[in-house]
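Lecture notes, continued. The same structure-token format from the folding unit now serves as the input rather than the output. Read the line below as a description of shape only.
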């Protein structure tokens, strides 16, 4: 049989088991916050109507205001013609004269001095443009590029029409292609760098 282990004596400082009384500040903070004197609690869902409201009697003035508005005869003219006014105009308004300020404000704003009106959709052709002659430079630019003999004609099929046709002009990237563009000239192969070029080719000393 095994022996029971001896109890372990734990040394506890004497000040740990003692509790000091709470300070006045802690007691003040632990007090619950009171309700504001102006606080109004929420109303209930069901509104209670007072007895005086239920037993109230409307006054003659309220009954008079509750009636619908009655149209007065002669307020509007009969619409016999569209140019006649609907509402009558008072004699004072008919005899009124506008002031200078009203006349000034009634004038429309003038157009800016640099304003150009909208041009017509159809522009007249000038005599010089109608009787002009084409220069040799324009004729040279209007001439299509020459056709190369080693280029095959491009056949394009028209499915909707059902026939074949060919294009006589070569494509742009073939016409402007220069096969000698990447050849180095002999003079460039025998060239020597000048002292200035060698100076600029050296890396910057840091």
């Amino acid at each position: 049989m095994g022996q029971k282990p001896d109890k372990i004596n734990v040394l506890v400082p004497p000040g740990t088991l003692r509790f000091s009384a709470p300070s006045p500040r802690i007691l003040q903070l632990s007090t619950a916050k009171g309700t504001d004197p102006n606080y109004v609690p929420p109303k209930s869902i069901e509104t209670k109507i007072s007895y005086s409201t239920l037993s109230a009697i409307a006054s003659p003035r309220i009954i008079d205001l509750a009636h619908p508005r009655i149209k007065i005869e002669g307020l509007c003219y009969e619409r016999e013609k569209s140019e006649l006014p609907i509402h009558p105009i008072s004699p004072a308004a008919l005899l009124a004269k506008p002031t200078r300020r009203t006349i000034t404000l009634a004038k429309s704003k003038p157009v800016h001095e640099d304003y150009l009106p909208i041009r017509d959709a159809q522009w007249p052709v000038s005599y010089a443009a109608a009787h002009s002659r084409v220069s040799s430079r324009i004729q040279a630019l209007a001439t299509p590029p020459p056709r190369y003999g080693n280029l095959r004609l491009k056949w394009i099929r028209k499915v909707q029409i059902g026939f074949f046709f060919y294009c006589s002009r070569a494509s742009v990237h073939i016409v402007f292609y220069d096969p000698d563009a990447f050849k180095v000239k002999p003079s460039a192969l025998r060239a020597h760098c000048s002292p200035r070029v060698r100076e600029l080719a050296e890396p910057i000393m840091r």
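Point for the exam: The first strand starts at residue 154 and ends at 157.
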